[in-house]
Amino acid sequence: MKESKVGWLGGVVIDTDDGRMIFDPVATRDMERNAHVFISHAHSDHTLGFHSNVTKYSTEQTRRIYEKLRERTVRNWRPAEYGRRMRIGDTDIVPLNAGHMLGSAQFKVAAGSETYVYSGDLNCVDTLTTDAAEVPECDTLIVEATYGDPSFVFPRRERTYARIVNWALRELKNGRMPTFHVYSSGKAQEIVRLFNVYTKLPIVCTPIVGKANEAYGEAGVRLTFVEAETAEGRRLLRKGNCVYVTTTGSNSLVPSHASEAVATGWAVRFGSGSYASFPLSSHAGFDQLVKYVAGTGARRVYVFTGYSELISKYLRKELKIEADPLPLLSQRSILDF
Ligand SMILES: [Zn+2]
Known about the structure:
It is a single chain. By secondary structure, the chain is an alpha/beta fold. The protein has 8 helices and 19 strands. Helix 7 (308-318) links the parallel strand 18 and strand 19 (322-325). Helices cover 26% and strands 25% of the residues. The site of zinc ion (ZN) has 4 residues, from loops. Zinc ion (ZN) binds at residues 41, 43, 100, 121.
């Protein structure tokens, strides 16, 4: 049994006796034929691996959202189901809920006598569209740290939900149309569901958000909305008596009577100019991240993205865990092992 190698090489890599496992690759060139690609969720910075020729694994929901938004078909794909063990040679892989968006998955890998978990993007609280991430036990954890700085502690979600609804009602009363600039998949559906659950307001969504809404609907998350480019959608947007959900950065199509907002974890620290901003995060805040790491019982932690240096230091000092930013692997170090 050779020692497995963990690191970054165009994606998060775990090398096993049964070949290379690559999680959320950002490059598909020079990928070995015996590699196996795992896509954790449908956000576009994680889905490039769907283009590769090797065998791809993701949840059914992740594939469907990707195919709807990209209008393409994924080939050579195998379904990953929460809690259902997959086997590649002698290596076991179990996908688990990551709580980040519909279909988002962590992967627990048992290779030889070691167990690894790749967290993907992670959210540790229940939302209106997703359940909190599971906390899997493992020896080695590879975890994201988008908000791995102690200043990112988020208020209770219910409080943020209430603030968003109150703000929207006030804007409407003052003749302005509440308009949210959010990611087309994940955050947009949480906003739609929020207004569906707590108000009777009509919700208008841009076509791309509408497509992601459909994928959520097919998976059993009921969303009521009007598509912006229908006659009804255009009428509502003209009158402004609705909530408008559009994507990040799409300013050109926003009517002048709009009152604009963002919903993101960054809002606890940074303002958004003239936009209202709400700390609604799809990622774990610092306190949740530390609790999650402790809960896994991992002896070795590798941290990637965001504040990896800072939280590694914290984990070493406070939890006495071997923690470091995920090392970069050279092609040579992989071939050597
Ligand atoms: Zn994501």
